[in-house]
Amino acid sequence: MLPWTLEQVVAFAPDAASAKAARGVARPGQWPMLGQNDRALWGECQGSGSVPYQIGIALDPGEPVFQCSCPSRKFPCKHAIGLLLLATGQPDAVPVGGPPAWLSDWLVKREQSARRKASCAAETDVDPEQQAKRAAAKDRRTAERQHKVEAGLEELERWLRDLVRQGLAHAQKQPARYWDAMAARLVDAQAPGLARWLREMASIPASGEGWSERLLARLGLLQLLLAGYRRLGSLPEPLQADIRSAIGWTWQESDLPAGAWIRDRWFMLGQRTYQEDRLQVRRSWLWGRDCGRLALLLDFAYQNQPLPVIPAPGVWLEAELGFFPSHYPLRALLRNSTPVEDRTMPPALADGAAPLLAAPLLNEYAEALARQPWLELWPATLAEAVPVRGEADIWLLRDATAHLLPCHPGFADRWRLFALSGGWPLTVFGEWNGQQLWPLSAWRGDRFTAF
Amino acid sequence: MTWQNLVTCALLGTERQAPEWPAGDDALGQLLSRLDADDREGALLRAAGVMALWRRAGHLLVHDPRPLPPPCEADDAPDCGPLARQHLALMLQGHHAEFLLEWLKTLSVAGRRAPADLLPALLEAGAARIGLRPALLPVLGQRGRWLAQQNPAWGYAVQADDENLWQTGQFEERLALLRQSRATRPDRALELLSATWAEERAKQRREFIEALAEGLSMADEPFLEAALDDRSIEVTHAAAELLARLPESRLVQRLTARALQGVRFQPGRFFKHDRLEVELPEDDPALRRDGIADPPSSVKLGEKAWRLSRMVGAIPPALWSQQWGRAPAEILTVSRESEWRPALLEGWALATQRHRDPDWAEALLPLYPDHDTLTAALAELLPPARFESYLLGLLGDASTGGRAAALVLLSRVQRPWTVALGRAVLGQVRQRVCEDKQPDWWLSNALRGFARWLPPELSEEAAAGWPTEAKQWPQWQKAVNDLLDRLRFRRAMREAIAAEESAQSDLPSLE
What we know:
The structure holds two protein chains of two kinds.
Chain A: H1 6-11, H2 16-25, E1 33-36, E2 40-45, E3 53-59, E4 64-68, H3 78-89, H4 101-126, H5 128-166, H6 168-172, H7 176-188, H8 192-202, H9 211-230, H10 237-247, E5 261-276, E6 279-288, E7 294-302, E8 316-323, E9 332-340, H11 358-371, E10 378-389, E11 395-398, E12 403-406, H12 414-421, E13 426-432, E14 437-444, E15 447-450
Antiparallel strand pairs in A: 1-2, 2-3, 3-4, 5-6, 5-8, 6-7, 8-9, 10-11, 10-13, 11-12, 13-14, 14-15
Chain B: H1 3-12, H2 27-32, H3 40-57, E1 62-63, H4 82-92, H5 100-109, H6 119-128, H7 133-136, H8 141-148, H9 162-168, H10 171-184, H11 186-196, H12 202-211, H13 221-227, H14 233-243, H15 250-262, E2 263-266, E3 275-278, H16 285-289, H17 303-314, H18 318-324, H19 328-334, H20 341-354, H21 358-364, H22 374-379, H23 384-395, H24 400-412, H25 419-434, H26 441-450, H27 459-463, H28 473-506
Antiparallel strand pairs in B: 2-3
Helix pairs in contact in B: 1-3, 9-10, 10-11, 10-12, 12-14, 13-14, 15-17, 17-20, 20-21, 23-25, 24-26, 26-28
């Protein structure tokens, strides 16, 4: 039994056209040959040419790896998605058996190259000379970047001062390139985090009532970040890491110390995918059964590129998560993950186990902000919440003491949430931005629904 | 000095106004007191950052002490399981959406309801397609009805207060309301319509009357009989059309009395054949009142002959068989000798459809082997067994014409097929592929539609035995795959519902 639902498989497609084409291919009639075992799926699909395409899907723990002999530039192509759709929707149509020779060849090659990579890594680890060379090169790169970033930050600070000297009303009248140009200079200065911050601010002057307050708040927080960077050395190390993260340093798997990794059984609590400029961003929240921690996985993909494949909300994973250093660690990297056949809800998230009232929940948030002031979205779970409809189509979550937590106006699945509740309390998990909650999942008992 | 002052200062710019920030002994005041007032820009930005965080951390919750609206009552029927839910989700996304109606009906027969989180999308689909509503309402459950009460766009799913909508709604809404209540509570619909009848405009009166076709019964007869005296000729015609479908209506009684006089049967004696004597009806006000006035310009019959056809068309055809002691086929044979046969045939065909007479339909079918609309309309009236044997007969016909006619007919008739008929049709299509002809475009189109009527249990069998070596096969392949795909989906969706149903009944009882 494959761990994905049809809807999730469709989401693997790089774009809507591919998804539609894949549905067209997901019919047993198109496949003169089909098969599966516990490690792979395969098939031959009749395309427009005379020779059928050969499609293989390796069922690696955590994510499928696609391979197809068709010439399509899309990846994964419609045949690969189609095969996965077919196997998910009509498992009986794909007989269990031994793989054909071409598939075995591919699987063997993959294993060999994986082994080569592993042994390569092992070898370099032992060679002290190589290691020293690498470390020196890395230090040089770090120093160069440091230098560039500092220059960029100085320019940004001048720019910010000009902005408030002339006034926000003046800034509101500026064309888009006023913001874009500064953002572009920050990209050049290798501070992509700040560049995103600028682009996000660019949309505020046209965002309607309250824009000046929202813009000033963002400008102020940005100033605090710059001030923090200036006296970085005097700050505790985790907070230094937070400031560097906000500016745009990222951590690779290899950068994280061994102690950062936690092996646990993780529950996928919620996901949200959205477009940010030409970038697709996916935020996934996981909760660890034994460690009791929440973790955020961030994935990015350019335009039509597919996001890495990960299990959908409601699935348990055996995996290691490596947390980025932070004063309030949330962001993490995932490795060695295997979905687990388990449909129960995490006991600590069961009805009534999460904070029952909105007020203590927000106190927790205030504490989190005190630790990490640049925390943008905070994972919030509210138990015993009843969705209610306020004025002007604003939806709210009402706690047991009749206090209201507003939902984000962009949350489109409000009627679904409302239908799930039926006017009865349920537990809602979502992202709190300081003013509004964006629900990502809701449950009562062990009936879990993701949005 | 508050946050608002700081915002105002920032709007104007520090070159016009110096920033100020709260002073005080509290933590915020102490923190802000360390700002350097001479560095206007730096101080403004830092104060903004500190106060923004302070405000964010101190978000004040709104308290609403009003009682909550009543929640939904618990449902007694179980909702459908995860696989059936996935099928519904796909259909609501537009994939295989043509089977949504069948899914709803199957679910309703199984005594289950639609899953809560898909109810909004389902109610949305019903708002757009009135035809879905009768099948949709039974699977909504308490939750769905409760939900529909909260959104005016889904008001159709709520029984209450149809009166208000009927009194104040737009014409389209009112028509939709009327059609829908005819499907479930025809008497209530008539009650609503009667109450406002005098104020409705002529064009709308006609459309309202036409909506009464659904759920038509003798309970509507007095209302329709009165509508025969309407000022608008369109309204009277619409009323006459409906009355002609009610065998016990006064209109049918009146026309029967006249028709029995106008068309008489003379049994044959000795060497004389049976024969029909026809006296054509003259124009008169009583006939006009019953909807038989002037023939439309498209009619090929003469004026009097047309009147005859309309008169015969209103009378239950079984009456002739009883009256004359002859089977429908025999009467049709006798009519060959009559110079008014075209008018009589037209009348009988019309009456057969209006009164849904299977015996007459069977007798008439051979006379209209490939009529545009009539063939399918008559075939729809046959009971399943006779429908099957009629079509099997055609499909087994030696002439290709007969077989082709059968396929055309099947592409037009909206009714499920038996296993035997399904097999015969698939055999026939396979044979067509073998014959190496250019594929008929209409048949490859029709194949997709066949998926709706073929029994889903044939889906395995239907996949086998295609002449994949035939020269024309590539031309057919896509249409055949489409057919098989649809059939498999139907089977999967029915099995998913049935499996859950049996899983439910396998549970040990609590007693």
